[in-house]
Amino acid sequence: MKVIQRWAAALLLLAASFSVWSPPAEAATAPASTKVLEEVRKIVRQYYVEPVSDQVLKASTPQDIVKQLDPYSAYMTKEEYEEFLKWIDMESVGIGVMIEEDENGVHIMSVLDNGPAARAGLQPGDVIQAVDGQPVTNETMEKVLSLIAGEEGTTVAVTVWRPSTEETVSVTIKQEKIDWPNVEFKRLAGNIGYIQLYSFDETAPAEIERAIRSLSGVKGWIFDLRDNPGGYVETAQQIAGFFPNVKQAFQLRDRSNHPEVYAAVKQPVQMAGPIRLLVNASSASASEMLAAAVKEQKAAVLYGQRTFGKGSMQEMFELSDGSMLKLTVAHFFSPKGTPIHHVGVKPDVPTVVGKELYAAHRDLLIGQLKGYQSLGKLRNAPVDKTFVVRFSRPLANTAVSGVKLYQLGGREAAVTAQIRRGTELLIKPAAKLAKGQSYLLVIPPVLKSKDGVAMKKGAYMEIQTAASTK
């Protein structure tokens, strides 16, 4: 999970449907430890997704029973649960970065605008190698999170490797309350709407509705579920309703194995036009539920890598002594019954890790260029390059308009275009292009030759800038 301030809660909320179980009155006279053990046995026997043997239920502690179930079931004592809740209360305190594991440390994927990390100079692409002098190269994500998420007002020393400049940078950052939005959206080059959802919490449907309304008039959509660990089942049903033609959200099977199909909740606004859905190996649970539904009902094309494969749903049961049992009570499938658990959802268009957005944006843009001719691909282009397109006939145009340069996954880059030597079209970006990025150069059919022959087709060229100027 890459969103630090949501991480603790995400573990608890993975495709979770919460309920509180009240212990039976007849157990009230039993000693506390025995009473809780019997409560756990009764709940597991009645609600666990699969029948459990008497041998498992004879275990002498709740921990020993749960240990023999699936990895998503857990038991927390009252003290452990209280500590966990304290951790959740602290989840909004941090340095304001999104991270993912990296072979050299921890990769910073995004930095909150005007957050503590941004003010200290950290940048997307930096790799955290040490925290307070402690190397994190071979540490688990849990360990790294515990090091960089502390109490408000405390400081943490972070050492990063910056690949773009090949230098090591050390900064001291004060930890603050972080208000990172659960939904981010923007208008990409070529008038493509982009929405990223970080978790399926209760606020997500209203935030997505606001995003769709704010991006009205776009020619296509990219809906990003990469690294999304899931959330509430009910939220997944609601979000499915933003996709046109999605009538069913998922299929659920409890220990009876009887399939029950749940409907999508139609929303007051929907995404119109072609939709691309981004997933990766960290898209889990409710993310997979949504991905399977839209793929099966052909409401979106999936880009990325096969998803995590967590097709199980948990419920929370509060016990008589204040301890908590999180128990897997059902498995979910696509609406037509395609398995997700231990399988994941396979994308329609597999991509290299980290290139999902570029691939989806490229395909949406090229989809707008019906009848245009491809001029091929230009690789390792200098960031300050002027592009030259040569024509076989002298051109009559004195001014050229409508030429576009789109950064894939980003905004439009400003360019000027002019005729040189009669047969050459010069296209010059107003500023240097970004290193190691992909662009699409689009030339509309606006040119005419001096003898009056109009350009029959528009043209486009795919451009990859050099990753280094060395």
TrEMBL record:
Start and end of every PDZ domain?
95-148
* Entry superkingdom: Bacteria
Top-level taxonomy: Bacteria, Bacillati, Bacillota, Bacilli, Bacillales
Q: Which PANTHER family match?
A: CARBOXY-TERMINAL PROCESSING PROTEASE CTPA (PTHR32060:SF30), TAIL-SPECIFIC PROTEASE (PTHR32060)
This protein is called what? Answer: Carboxyl-terminal processing protease
- Give a single Pfam family match: Peptidase_S41
Give the signal peptide range.
1-27
Record keywords: Hydrolase, Protease, Serine protease, Signal
Gene Ontology biological-process annotations: proteolysis; signal transduction
Q: Give the matching NCBIfam families.
A: prc (TIGR00225)
An annotated Gene Ontology molecular function: serine-type peptidase activity
Instruction: Give the protein family.
Output: Belongs to the peptidase S41A family.
Q: Which Gene3D superfamilies match?
A: 2-enoyl-CoA Hydratase, Chain A, domain 1, 2.30.42.10, 3.30.750.44
Does the record's keyword annotation contain Membrane?
Answer: no
Classification via InterPro entries: ClpP/crotonase-like_dom_sf, PDZ, PDZ_6, PDZ_sf, Peptidase_S41A, Tail-specific_protease
GO CC annotation: what is one?
A: outer membrane-bounded periplasmic space
